[in-house]
Specification:
Strand content: 35-45%
Helix content: 25-40%
Distance between the termini: 40 Å
Shape: globular
Radius of gyration: 15 Å
Order of helices and strands: EHHEEEEEEH
Structural class: alpha+beta
Number of helices: 3
Number of strands: 7
């Protein structure tokens, strides 16, 4: 498993709401950019790496601060990626911040080169998430 994390200067509920929104996810997920709903709860995006299609469903569990992202085909998606949002103050960070972790689980048959690409992408994606959340909050501030 891969587990990049970032401390974002946004409240946890703000981060959670966006990470559970397919339009927001489609702005940072390098393997599923531009997510659009193709059937109820199922979204399709395009990989920036090779132009292939990815299908994603979002499974938020607000009581846990957890969003499972089911990834795969239109017919079958596996919850292989998940984000967890933890309020910063719970971990001794300032109020109004949150820690975001992005986890990817490696499937048994995952090609080593593709897994290496996933690891590199997720390291970049956590930085994109942090920057996009902080920018969105700043734009909403009066």
């Amino acid at each position: 498993a891969l587990l990049p994390a970032a401390l974002a200067a946004v409240p946890a509920d703000f981060a959670f709401a966006r990470l559970a929104d397919a339009a927001f996810v489609g702005g940072w997920s390098l393997g599923a950019m531009g997510l659009t709903e193709v059937s109820p709860g199922v979204h399709r995006g395009v990989s920036l790496f090779d132009g292939s299609e990815a299908h994603v469903d979002l499974r938020p569990a607000p009581e846990l601060g957890l969003i499972d992202y089911g990834v795969g085909t239109a017919e079958r998606r596996v919850p292989r990626i998940f984000a967890r949002v933890t309020a910063g103050e719970v971990l001794g960070h300032p109020s109004g911040t949150c820690l975001i972790t992005l986890t990817a689980l490696r499937a048994a048959g995952a090609d080593p080169d593709r897994w290496a690409r996933t690891c590199t992408a997720h390291e970049a994606e956590i930085l994109l998430i942090k920057a996009q959340l902080e920018t969105a909050l700043a734009r909403e501030a009066p």
